[in-house]
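Colleagues,

Please find the record for the two-part complex below.
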Amino acid sequence: MLKFILKRIIRALGTLVALVLVAFCLLEYAPSDPLQKYNGSSEVLKTAKEYNKIKNKLNKQLGLNLPAFYISIVSQVIPDTLYKISLEQDQIALKKMLFKYGEWSQISKYYKAYNRLLEHNRNINIVDKTQQLECHEIITASFYRQTPTNQLYRIKALYGFYNNKDGLNLVDELIESMETLEVRSNWTKYLPKLNFYSQNKFHRWVFGDNRYTKGIIRGDFGISYVTGEPVETKVRNKLFWSVLLSVMGIILAYGMGIATAIYAVIRKNKITDRVITAITVILFSIPTFWFAIISLLTFANPDLLSILPVSGVKPIKGFVSNSNLMLNFFLTLPYLVLPTICYAYSTYALVTQTFRSSLLEEMKLDYIKTARAKGLSEKEIILRHAFKNALLPLVTLFTTSFPLAIGGSLIIETVFNIPGMGNEIMNAVYHQDYPVLIAFFVLSGIITLLSYLVSDIVYAFIDPRIEIEELA
Amino acid sequence: MNIKISIPLRAKLWLALLACLSLIGLGFDSFLPNQPSLIRWSNYNLAIGVFIGVKWSLFIAILAMLIASTIGITLGLLSGYFQNTKYKVSWVGVIWVALTLFCCCFYGVYMNTSFQNANGGSILVTILLVIAISRLLWALVAKYIQPKKNRAVPIDSMISQTIEIMNSTPKIIIIVVLAAVVQQTSVGVLIWIIGLTSWTGIARIMRAETLKCKEKFFIESATAMGIKDSMILLKYILPNIIKPILVIISFGVGSVVLIESSLSFLGIGVSRNTITLGKIIAYGQNNIDNWELTLLPGFAIFVIVYGLNIIARELNLD
């Protein structure tokens, strides 16, 4: 048994590592450039000092100037230190230029000239800020979209108007370096190159860097892009309602489901049995969000029936101060009635169907015949003999109902406006808050993996045949 | 190959109904504006909207299921048939495959995406070219460099590990996160995302069915006759497990319809210029006076999914 558990834990750990890798890939490829938001997209351009301050802060907090992973395989023309450029957009543009012109030395000269001009443009002090912003846009367009140099003459005209000699020199320098770029054929760009980095974003994300993050291994998922608060406090606040809801839903679904299934088997081949089967198929086919809205329209509608509250989890005034836990629970209960039912009904249908068929299978076996021959009633046979043995498939089902519950909470929490995990995920999606999104992704993965692990071990305890199969 | 499947009458009727429902919506696309908020919701417009929604739901669900079932059936057949011991390759072959994969990634994906504007066509052409060259070279040199001794590839373990990784996060969360990361909203992207995430159940059931079918006598005799593995898989095993495949596909299409409608209800994934049932419901949720805006599209989803479930059950019972 110990060997089996150990083997199972090792496998779960492997899956966890893969999950973390996938999550990191998603975070890395998410189309958001935190620095981009500060890079001139606002109404007023930031001065170079402010911009550098933000850049350094973000570099420290998010590790923007680090390579992505321990190893990287890139083309030979890419220089070793390209990752040190914090702006992702710049890196992409530089890669395209590298591929076209073939050599880093001339491009780095151009890039330096470009950055000098950009910094100068940030620093000039003119009254009309829109002109400054326009210049900024022309310069960045010349780099990102490779617009022809005659666009830059418009900046020259503007700088000339303000008699800005330094700026004119810098523009000339940029134009010159752009025009001296020549296409040099370089076949080495088609060869791969292997790089190793000990300091990288992945390492930092997982294990932390002692100063700014602790790493996800110690429960630090970074900082929310939107609110700026640590993700873990956000998660901690939200987890309670989701867990409460799913536990209540699962208890309701399993209790009702098992009872209904036993009732259906006792009344086998009668009209009640067929009605129950039909109802389960119908319950399967109802979309959750529709069921939720319809139940709201029926039971929380002032025109129809107004017996339950519409949304939220507690009275608008809040709980009475210095009240005990039990009272709070009873105050919250009406808010949770509809969500719990919406949560439970599809799981209930699944449980009923599975348990009914497994009970029916069990009833065909020989020991049931013996029990019948002893003269036991059908009810006694089911409850005392078949029930325990038919529970096995439910253990497997239980594992799948946990992920289902987390997934289901997404919709129900949005409809009923419950401040739980699902609601927070939707908020993160709307605001493109990727750290929060990935944190929930990893967390739900860990919860699911744990539930799989526990149920597999429980299953092996109940049915030792599994263990032998697994080890063979 | 001679496969005959008898489809029960009730399943046929439901199939005909679903086909009619989606065909009606086919011509109506230009009748309504793209956003639910722009439409004047008369009864007539609501009916048209529901038919368009039904058409899109079934279109997305069937195409996504096509992708999912292709992946799932292939992997399930492979893992059930070869298991951990039957497929043998020499280490040179393994290295060769790894090199080919590396070249596919490097020249096909990396070179195309990071240096030029990515183009799906050019990526595909490069990958096919790399595979073709690798095959050709292998055919030429395999005789000289391949050692005699072969080792078994644990296909079954690899595939089941992949399935476990896929299952370790709730499907809807994977889909939501992927849709948020991809950020392009179009029907095609949605189809690919759903298709690539929902093959695990199919693969699992296919594996079990293949294992069951493999034990049968005629497979043993076919193996004894020296028929190739690929032929056994395609001509002996696949036709015999076609029925469970149909059952899973019709169950699967139903579940994809549910997923798609809840995604478009949440406002994720579906593009701006299509009207879907979920979108209409989301609009109706905020306009409680027009309660039929919630009731009717939801009922349409219910009818589709119920019909598909009934088809699956009838096929299963038969």
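Chain A has a mean pLDDT of 82.

Comments are welcome before we finalize the supplementary table.
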